[in-house]
Alanine racemase
Amino acid sequence: MAQAVLSIDLDAITRNWRALSALSGAAEAGAVVKADCYGLGAGTVAPALAAAGARRFFVAEAHEGAAIRRALGAGPEIFVFAGHMAGDAWVIGDAGLIPMLNSPDQWARHRAALPGHAFGLQFDSGMNRLGLEAADWRAISAEALAAGPRLLMSHLACADEPGHEMNARQLAAFRAMTDGTGVARSLSATGGILLGPDYHFDVTRPGIGLYGGAPFADAAPVVRLSLPVIQIREIPAGETVGYGNTWTASRPSRIATLGAGYADGLIRAMTGKAQVWHGDTPCPLVGRVSMDSMGVDVTDLADTPETLDILGPHQGVDALATMAGTIGYEVLTALGHRYARHYRGGAA
Ligand SMILES: *Cc1c(COP(=O)(O)O)cnc(C)c1O
């Protein structure tokens, strides 16, 4: 095998969607498909989610929305978190996207550029990232509500910490801005779904949980990443491996060089911390992760592997992320474009 292979289990993704949909109770589960479905390939993954029953999709910006529309065809609603940015009117109109308007300026822009076109409204309930502040909302609420928004939403900053007081504070702020409007509401991503029914409202927005990541602890694993062994060498004790001579063999060692590195999203911070797997056996990375390769100590293996797995059943995105001092979201979305992508399953 010459190329590293990223295997993506579409059935695991749809199983995770169904599980998060069940956990969403009476609320409808949407699907967050921004950043190319967290790096897993929106053109394949979004249709699998639609086939499983997802009807409301969420992206970060309008051009992503247009790609999702091409993948899904007419029918599903596609909401854009960035709202209506300057220059986006054509793509929003053409692809039939629903911008989540974030400010009075966006509201004015949307009305002027696409009068009568669907929209939603995003509120800042305390995260201070995107959305209308309470005073903004007072200024436009009568007009905006009269125009019939499709969805009112906000986003939680600390939902992956169930005990954090910020959750209740944001819930109260969101209710204060949206109670009594009669419009469909959405507050929770994966973490918020797990906070329970108070946080569900009408529509939930799971992302990372679909793709097998924390905080959805019961997620089915979605990805396997198998790296090809380019070369194996025997080295005596005292020799070093990789840039900067950061690793020295303490015994005669067998070193495999794998064909992927930080240009493939396997960040240099994994140096000296991560491991790869040969079946059930872990093997430590040795030496610095290079741009296109990394070294592994395979001295203790009985056989000579052709590939080693850096993501798989024994080591998911969160485990690998923890070793590298980051989060599963970053590991997934950083996975590069040099992998052969193999999709398994899918409802089609
Ligand atoms: C990314 C994002 C989501 C999905 O979050 P996960 O933690 O991946 O489930 C939902 N809503 C907004 C506004 C987002 O930016």
In short: Residues 41 and 341 are 9 Å apart (CA to CA). The pocket of pyridoxal-5'-phosphate is lined by residues 32, 34, 81, 155, 189-191, 205-209 (CB under 6 Å). The longest helix spans residues 10-23. The domain at 223-344 is CATH 2.40.37.10 (Lyase, Ornithine Decarboxylase; Chain A, domain 1).
